[in-house]
Amino acid sequence: MVQKYQSPVRVYKHPFELIMAAYERRFPTCPLIPMFVDSDTVNEFKSEDGAIHVIERRCKLDIDAPRLLKKIAGVDYVYFVQKNSLNSRERTLHIEAHNETFSNRVIINEHCCYTVHPENEDWTCFEQSASLDIKSFFGFESTVEKIAMKQYTSNIKKGKEIIEYYLRQLEEEGITFVPRWTPPSIATSSETSALCRKQAVSLAVVVPDAAQKEGQSGEVLSNPSGAPEPVVGTPDDKLDADYIKRYLGDLTPLQESCLIRLRQWLQETHKGKIPKDEHILRFLRARDFNIDKAREVMCQSLTWRKQHQVDYILDTWNPPQVLQDYYAGGWHHHDKDGRPLYVLRLGQMDTKGLVRALGEEALLRYVLSINEEGLRRCEENTKVFGRPISSWTCLVDLEGLNMRHLWRPGVKALLRIIEVVEANYPETLGRLLILRAPRVFPVLWTLVSPFIDDNTRRKFLIYAGNDYQGPGGLLDYIDKEIIPDFLGGECMCEVPEGGLVPKSLYRTAEELENEDLKLWTETIYQSASVFKGAPHEILIQIVDASSVITWDFDVCKGDIVFNIYHSKRSPQPPKKDSLGAHSITSPGGNNVQLIDRAWQLGRDYSMVESPLICKEGESVQGSHVTRWPGFYILQWKFHSMPACAATNLPRVDDVLASLQVSSHKCKVMYYTEVIGSEDFRGSMTSLESSHSGFSQLSAATTTSSQSHSSSMISRWRFC
What we know:
- The longest helix has 32 residues, at 141-172.
- The two termini are 44 Å apart.
- Helix 1 (16-24) crosses helix 3 (141-172) and helix 12 crosses helix 16 (509-520).
- Strands 1, 2, 3, 4, 5, 6, 7 and 8 form an 8-stranded antiparallel β-sheet that branches.
- The protein is an alpha+beta fold.
- Helices cover 30% and strands 25% of the residues.
């Protein structure tokens, strides 16, 4: 398996030329990197004008590995080839390195880049990426991989320190300014060059004070006052190290790499909005930074959010009055760590009455709104306290809990809520304080604990009776001034007291079922299954030419091909026979086939756009301006991997990819709409199909009054 690494962008508040002067001092050897024994120059090239300087070095490394492993491998040192390409005109340095030793067994590639900051030409950005592929190593592949990753991550941490060390060394020598490269025609004589050097020396005395006034001090991203400072922007919306530390916390280099790689994947497959970095990080933490597992559950969650419009729940859904009066829970200040504090008086709440009056789905939706509010409060507290806050604390008071709370439908609703929250709000619970647990609590805990993730369970603190008032109790986590009055504190808590729900508010099972159906069918999206040999098709009749067909769909599972066809005559309604039928109903959605098998492409119907291959997890939006009236068929077809062009044998990658699609089945969730040309606000000559994000968890939540399809990056352009 190939191990990959991608760094955040590290910003140095120093000019590029000064950073290059510090970087060159690392050669031929660097005392700050003990494993870097020596380096020899193999090739060197300089352009006539001095703007291009390419140097290739052979570096000798003493890897910190067990002596036995070195003896088996038969080497004491490992050699790498490093090629540095400096372009003084463009102010860039590209570094490429690969291993020379054991290159037939182990493949290591690294690429680093120093560039000028896009928003401040006196700052420098640094970024690096690497890959490790161990094909074979005398049966010690796993050991070598661990050693290599350990060595690499330790050197990554030292990289910034080394540059800072040599910057201080330059400053001690009186070198705080290095002039930029200029074409030879500007400075032709030696006298002019000497004058420039003289001016540079004089500037070295003046520049530091001036630079300090402009915020360009000698420390990298320093902030002596401790007050929050604006996060430095980076090109192409990349993450920089200072932003990660300020808003996401201290991450290891490998954790940073996982975050950046998953974020890049989302940017590539969901053009436009993507979830916020804090939310991506939560899914990674919940899966121990396994990118594949985190990506799978995150895509499922994003699809779920879109289907049920969870992003808009705080703005569009008003809780019923019964919940506002009898749901004994609410937000109450924050704990000592700055986390938002949610108080739930479960023992005073009539769970049976709430379920009978509202139904399971209404309770679930209310809990989702609480979680959405929690995400918003975490963002606010991050800004207020100047440190990353990505979770909240929940205080649950169980005084009054009895067997009534173990009513089976109520427990069933609780388990459903836990299941949904665990799947879609991972790592949002920082701490759960359970107070005044009665004797009946172990029975409830036995029922619900199997449905709670192990990582979440470790955050539970349970106190019986008045134990919460003693050492290690509530005062360790919450300031005395905000302890609620019902727990012996002095702070008035505005959480409803709960109480019994009047039976006059109870509703019949049929009423509740209809209400539940209404709550969770409030979505414009439909689901469909696509099978190998059985595409899913929908029919759109167009009366007026130049109408606009728009679509928005997500590929939930497998890879599909999206096609658009036109026919002058209407297809026959789908048959529903049991054998070879044109219509299939499955738990994952319907499958409808409209194009008759006797129809011929080009005679009975025509393709109006080129096919679009869509990968699993992608979100696609697009529009098509119709040229003729008639019947248009939108088709989602199973994508079969093509065989290798040179032979009839499939490629290994294709075979592995095909195995991931179980039973040759794909799933899509889609929405289509026909808009009159006079009502369409986009450009009629530049309508595009694009891959876009959909979650309001995105940092950019504003929508333009212009058509989204005319501003996004297109996969294909329609005429």
